[in-house]
Amino acid sequence: MSKKGVLLVNLGTPDSPSTADVRKYLREFLMDPRVIDVNPVLRTILVKGFIAPTRGPKSAKLYQQIWDEKTGSPLLHYSKLQQQLLQDRLGDKYMVELAMRYQSPSIESALTRLKDALVQEIQVIPMFPQYASASTGSVYEKIMDIVGKWPTSPNISFINSFHDNELMIETFANNAQKHDPESYDHILFSFHGLPQRQLIKSDHTHSYCLKVDGCCETLNDTNKFCYSAQSHHTAKLIAQKLNIPKEKYTICFQSRLGSDPWVQPYTSEIVAKLANEGKKRLLVFCPAFVADCLETVFEVTKEYGDEFKALGGEHVQLVESLNDSPTWIDALEKMVRE
Ligand SMILES: C=CC1=C(C)c2cc3[nH]c(cc4nc(cc5[nH]c(cc1n2)c(C)c5CCC(=O)O)C(CCC(=O)O)=C4C)c(C)c3C=C
Ligand SMILES: [Fe+2]
Ligand SMILES: [Fe+2]
């Protein structure tokens, strides 16, 4: 009997922290129409003419600071561990492959390995807890582009989002317990940001997201695919699990690129506000990521840490991501088996 295929897909990372490889990564990533969703001519000018040439060398310097001599990019390192640990759990009736939406290992190569092993059923898990067109949606599109051209199509299923997955929530809560959350003045749930227009586009009613007051603060039937609403929901579930009162935490969005408005509030502004209020110690969750990466290790710990200290704060502590935690592998196993 043929094996069942499981394909874990994360975002992607450069092949090395050299400027050339970071530029190559940024070009592939940012030329995706779901990521920079403007007209193709403008996107090409922006990415090839401005962002890759200018951000490339800057990002390369950042990647050099998080790159491990032996294991390389943290995102790829933890993704490989997740793949191996899930394969061990599922045993030889399953074949677990790993791919990155951008750069390596490519989705095409992972699908080819599954095809060569005569796998007839593939379960795809885009490794993004909250649905966004720029992340999950782009993985769907890429996979359907490839498989749609095969002479015979396997059964394919996708996990659309897992923003409320109990074992994921438990893993973030367990990881926070290691830092004694009560000893912090304030807690941030900092999600990757998105341009506001992408939230508006994802609203099928065209009249709710960013049009109604407090639209995305609670998840309901109208906004159930809204990235911001799902992010708020994840944060509330972690806060409930840890009994963190409402006034002690803030939900915010990081990593803004360009000058268009992104989902708010911005993490950087919240960090500054809290420092100005005299807060000294911040604990930061990044629940849009299932593995530590540039956006957690560098942006939160170093960038926001430095900003907070420059304004009188003392310490910013990142809650480690799901990485290779056994309860997170339990979560993945359960997603596959159910
Ligand atoms: C228009 C720009 C971007 C959108 C939209 C966007 C959405 C988005 N990204 C992630 C996850 C990750 N992004 C990462 C890095 C990263 N993201 C952007 C831009 C957008 N992301 C850039 C330019 C970069 C590169 C780094 C930099 O120059 O700042 C990463 C980290 C990768 C790593 O190698 O460590 C992740 C993960 C999600 C989930 C998302 C939509 C919700
Ligand atoms: Fe990103
Ligand atoms: Fe919304």
From TrEMBL:
This is Ferrochelatase. Pathway: Porphyrin-containing compound metabolism; protoheme biosynthesis; protoheme from protoporphyrin-IX: step 1/1. InterPro entries: Ferrochelatase, Ferrochelatase_C, Ferrochelatase_N. One of its GO terms (biological process) is heme biosynthetic process. Its main location: cytoplasm. It catalyses: heme b + 2 H(+) = protoporphyrin IX + Fe(2+); Fe-coproporphyrin III + 2 H(+) = coproporphyrin III + Fe(2+). GO terms for molecular function: ferrochelatase activity; metal ion binding. It comes from Mucilaginibacter mallensis. Belongs to the ferrochelatase family. The keyword Metal-binding applies. One of its GO terms (cellular component) is cytoplasm. Catalyzes the ferrous insertion into protoporphyrin IX. The gene is hemH. NCBIfam families: hemH. Fe(2+) binds at residues 192, 295. Keywords: Cytoplasm, Heme biosynthesis, Iron, Lyase, Metal-binding, Porphyrin biosynthesis. It is found in: Cytoplasm. It is an enzyme of class 4 (lyase). Its EC number is 4.98.1.1.
